[in-house]
Amino acid sequence: MHIVSSVLIVDDELSMREFLQILMQNEGHKVCVADTVSSALKRCRHEIFDLVLTDLKLPDGSGLEVLKWISEHQADTQVILLTAFATTQNAVEAMRLGAYDYQIKPVKVDEIRALTEKAIEKASLLAENRELNARLAGRKSLSQIIAQSPQMRRVLEMVEK
């Protein structure tokens, strides 16, 4: 299932940003890029992304900071951390903070393509679930109206249908 989405790529290496940008655009996604934690967070404050691909080591901090902010402010957004400096501690921390995945560079094209599609699908399903739950919550409020007359009960039944 292919879902068009909004993707943010955060990496201080121009070649990696361009590689991921081309890959995601070729899949039909809208792509934004950032090269620091601060520029990534600035973008995230103004736009909601379905997926964020972020390097772990950035000039002004860690991709974990981006992940933490997204986990707190955009719960449906999925985050994949990429790093050339993998440690068990970083991987555990990333997963604890809610990362969708943690990948070691260099990434393989087919693997990252499949992984990003699954992450985007999850983001879409979470957003859809949240919307459906909100609709159901609205419906439940109608059933709590107490009607005495048969005419009013019929009106409520019609509204519910």
Task: Name the overall outline.
Answer: elongated
Tell me about the largest β-sheet.
5 strands, parallel
Q: Count of helices?
A: 6
Helical proportion?
55-70%
Topology order in helix (H) and strand (E) letters: EHEHEEEHEHEHH
Mean pLDDT: 89
Structural class: alpha/beta
Rg value: 21 Å
* Low-confidence blocks of residues: none
Major beta sheet, strand line-up: 2-1-3-6-7
Distance between the termini: 32 Å
Number of strands: 7
> Which assembly state applies to the chains in this document?
single chain
Strand content: 15-25%
Chain-wise SSE layout:
Layout: E1 6-10, H1 14-26, E2 30-34, H2 37-46, E3 51-55, E4 57-58, E5 61-62, H3 63-73, E6 78-83, H4 88-96, E7 101-104, H5 109-143, H6 150-160
Parallel strand pairs: 1-2, 1-3, 3-6, 6-7
Antiparallel strand pairs: 4-5
Helix pairs in contact: 2-3
